[in-house]
Design a protein that fits this description.
The chain has a six-stranded parallel sheet, sandwiched between helices. A four-stranded parallel sheet has the order 6-5-7-8, with helices on both faces. The protein is globular, with a radius of gyration of 18 Å. The chain has helices spanning 18-28, 50-66, 77-82, 84-95, 105-110, 127-132, 134-142, 156-161, 168-184, 202-207, 219-232, 234-237, 254-265; strands spanning 9-13, 34-38, 71-74, 100-102, 120-125, 147-152, 190-193, 214-216, 246-250, 271-273. 46% of the residues lie in helices and 16% in strands. Residues 13-15, 17, 43-46, 76-78, 126, 129, 157, 195-197 line the site of D-glutamic acid.
C-alpha cells in the first residue's frame, strides 16, 4: 500500500476464486479497506503438496502484512486446508502474534447444524481440499453422528477459469460429480461447495441437485462470519482502517487478471502486478 497509515483487511487466494468472497465482504462491510492478493502466477493450488501450498501461502500472508494488513483472510479452501493451521500455530507467533489469519473452512462448517436433517453431508472441493480431510475433521469437531462423503471435482476450477460456465461441457462435469456424490451416499441432504470458485457454477449445480438437497455456497457465509468476527473483536477491528478502498494485486499479468477477475468479482477489476 502506498499510504503507510492504511491497514486494509487482506484477502488472499491462489488466484481468482477469493474474489467471490471479497465481493460479499465489500457488500457487507463497505466502510472497510480491503487489499486482495491473487497468486495467479502459481495457481491453481488444488493439486499441489502441503509443503508447496504452505510456502506459497506464507509468502502471500507476509506480503499482505507488509502492505499494512493486521487481519488476513485466506479466501481459498485449498490454502485454508493445507496451510492455515501451520501459519496460525507455527509461523504467526514468530512474525507478529497480534495479527490474525483466518480461513474459510471453519465458518462454512459452523452453518451446517440447521441445514441437514439426515446428518449426511456432501463436500465438493479440489483434489487438495478433499485429500486433506479438513472438512470431515472440522465437522467431527463441531458435530457428532454426521456421515461425511467427499467428491473431488478437478475439472470445475478450469471450467470457471476458462469461462465455460453454462456450456454443455460445464453441465456434463457438474452433473457427473453430483451424481457420483449422491450415488456414494443417497441420504445426503446438504452439500457444501468447498471451493471459492464454485459460487460461479451455482446455477448449473442447482439444476442437477436432487430435490430436497440443500447446496451451501461459501461467499455469503464467510462474509457473515467476518462481520460477526469484527463485532466480537474490537481489538482487531479497531486496527483495520475504514476509507472504503479496494485494491487488487496479482503475481502475474495484470491485464489477464483484470479480464478474468471481472467475471469473479462481477464488477470491473483493476490490478497491479507484484512479486512475492
Ligand atoms: N479457489 C481455490 C479453493 O477455494 C481453488 C483454486 C485452486 O486450486 O487454486 O480451493
Amino acid at each position: 500500500m502506498k499510504d503507510k497509515h492504511a491497514h486494509p483487511i487482506g484477502v488472499f487466494d491462489s488466484g481468482y476464486g477469493g474474489l467471490t468472497i471479497l465481493k460479499e465482504f465489500v457488500r457487507k462491510l463497505p466502510e472497510y479497506d480491503f487489499v486482495y492478493l491473487g497468486d495467479s502466477a502459481r495457481n491453481p493450488y488444488g493439486g499441489r503438496s502441503y509443503e508447496t501450498v504452505h510456502a506459497y501461502t506464507l509468502e502471500a500472508v507476509k506480503k499482505l502484512f507488509a502492505m499494512g494488513s493486521h487481519l488476513v483472510i485466506i479466501a481459498c479452501n485449498t490454502a485454508s486446508a493445507k496451510a492455515l493451521r501451520t501459519i496460525q500455530q507455527k509461523d504467526l507467533p514468530g512474525i507478529d502474534p497480534a495479527r490474525r489469519v483466518l480461513g474459510v473452512i471453519r465458518p462454512t462448517v459452523e452453518t451446517l447444524g440447521p441445514v441437514t436433517k439426515t446428518k449426511h453431508v456432501g463436500i465438493m472441493g479440489t483434489t487438495g481440499t478433499v485429500s486433506s480431510e479438513s472438512y470431515p475433521i472440522e465437522i467431527r469437531k463441531l458435530f457428532s453422528g454426521f456421515t461425511v462423503t467427499q467428491e473431488a471435482c478437478p475439472m470445475w476450477v478450469p471450467l470457471v477459469e476458462n469461462n465455460e460456465i453454462g456450456t454443455p461441457g460445464a453441465e456434463y462435469f457438474v452433473r457427473r460429480h453430483l451424481e457420483r456424490l449422491m450415488a456414494a451416499d443417497p441420504e445426503i441432504d446438504a452439500i457444501i461447495l468447498g471451493c471459492t470458485h464454485y459460487p460461479l457454477l451455482l446455477d448449473v449445480i442447482l439444476k442437477f441437485t436432487p430435490p430436497g438437497v440443500s447446496v451451501i455456497p461459501q461467499d455469503n457465509i464467510v462474509a457473515e462470519s467476518l462481520t460477526d468476527y469484527l463485532s466480537r473483536h474490537p481489538e482487531i477491528s479497531d486496527r483495520c482502517t475504514r476509507s472504503g478502498t479496494v485494491r487488487f494485486f496479482t503475481t502475474d499479468s495484470a491485464k489477464h487478471f483484470d479480464e478474468l477477475g471481472t467475471i469473479f468479482f462481477r464488477d470491473p477489476v483493476r490490478s497491479e502486478k507484484i512479486v512475492l
